[in-house]
Design brief:
It comes from Heterosigma akashiwo. This protein is mainly beta. The longest helix is centred in the middle third of the chain and has 9 residues, at about 170-180. The chain has two domains: about 70-195, PDZ domain (Pdz3 Domain, Roll), CATH 2.30.42.10; about 200-310, Beta-grasp domain (Ubiquitin-like (UB roll), Roll). It has six helices and 20 strands. The protein has helices spanning about 40, 70-75, 140-145, 170-180, 220-225, 275-280, and strands spanning about 1-5, 15, 15-20, 25-30, 30-35, 75-80, 85-90, 95-105, 115-120, 125-135, 150-155, 160-165, 185-195, 200-205, 210-215, 220, 260-265, 285-290, 295, 300-310. It starts with a strand and ends in a 6-residue tail after the last strand.
Length: about 325
């Protein structure tokens, strides 16, 4: 389920700077420098690589992919992840972009060194706040983890004291940061839109023919094979979870009948998780389950060569 922001964008420029006495927040709002006591400002009760160079040579702030904050805001959408729990968050509305997670512990001494811009806000406290500036030489910049266009997702102190700010408006984000004003450092987790890189994937069929596919980084191999009308399951294989029958588990990673053999490009694929490792324990090391294999896990272009249904003679 997707909910679009209905209110017109408004931009509030904030430069976060926790003062050394832990009592004030210095910020720049609409060209003015102000000092507000935390108890007045914050209401009570309220977790792959980019290329290019960030900057604003034409007077417009852009990220490393050359996107303006307004363009980035247009690529984000608010999605409901769990309706029963009321859990919502940011996702991408464009299949050509994926979400990358940035995380670092940032010193509070002398300021975080982040400028935030509220791009959208609703009447229910939800909104979209993006990083508008990463101060050169500032604490956030020295971590090397944060970029223009990032959206804060979690703030706090690990373990166990993290506050979710994903999808909150400017005031909600500021309130969450204020909870940790007396800490020496704060952990920041951000979501980042990144353009998904294309990969060339060759699938050698049991009869020796080849199918060449272009997949975007982050694609699940099984899903792309099905979309291209390629045979995924080996009909001769008994199920791992039900060894007395054939058939498949519909992509749950339990039957072990969607095997591929990796001939080239192993480094461009996700590592086997615990379930896949269990299913493939007695299989050759080059075997993978297509339903649990992500292509382009590092978001780098490249070439992958696979043999489908490797247990069949061809």
């Amino acid at each position: 389920m997707m909910m679009d922001f209905k209110c017109p964008p408004k931009v509030l420029l904030l430069f976060l700077l926790f003062c050394a006495n832990h009592q004030h927040l210095a910020f720049k709002l609409q060209g003015r420098v102000c000092l507000n006591h935390l108890s007045k400002r914050f209401p009570n009760g309220v977790l792959p690589q980019m290329s290019g160079k960030e900057g604003a040579e034409d007077g417009v702030t852009r990220n490393a992919d050359g996107l303006t904050l307004e363009e980035i805001a247009g690529l984000f959408k608010m999605s409901v992840f769990d309706l029963d729990e009321g859990l919502y968050g940011l996702d991408t509305r464009d299949v050509n972009y994926g979400i990358e997670i940035a995380k670092a512990r940032v010193s509070r001494e002398g300021g975080l060194g982040l400028g935030l811009s509220e791009m959208m806000a609703g009447r229910d406290g939800r909104g979209l706040v993006l990083v508008e500036d990463v101060a050169e030489g500032g604490n956030a910049a020295t971590t090397g983890q944060f970029r223009v266009g990032d959206a804060l997702s979690w703030v706090g102190e690990e373990p166990g004291d993290m506050t979710r700010v994903e999808g909150l408006d400017f005031d909600g984000t500021l309130a969450a940061l204020g909870k940790y004003a007396d800490r020496e450092a704060v952990t920041l987790v951000a979501k980042r839109l990144v353009r998904r890189q294309p990969l060339e994937v060759t699938l050698i069929q049991p009869d020796g023919s080849e199918a060449k596919l272009e997949m975007l980084a982050g694609s699940v191999l099984r899903g792309e094979m099905l979309r291209q009308g390629l045979q995924v399951y080996d009909p001769s294989q008994k199920r791992f979870d039900q060894p007395y029958v054939t058939g498949n588990c519909g992509g749950e990673g339990l039957c072990g009948t969607c095997l591929v053999a990796v001939l080239e490009g192993k480094e461009l694929l996700s590592l086997p998780d615990r379930v896949e490792a269990m299913v493939l324990e007695k299989r050759p090391a080059r075997y993978r389950l297509s339903c649990r294999t992500i292509v382009g896990v590092t978001n780098q272009p490249g070439k992958v060569v696979l043999k489908s249904m490797p247990t069949l003679e061809g």
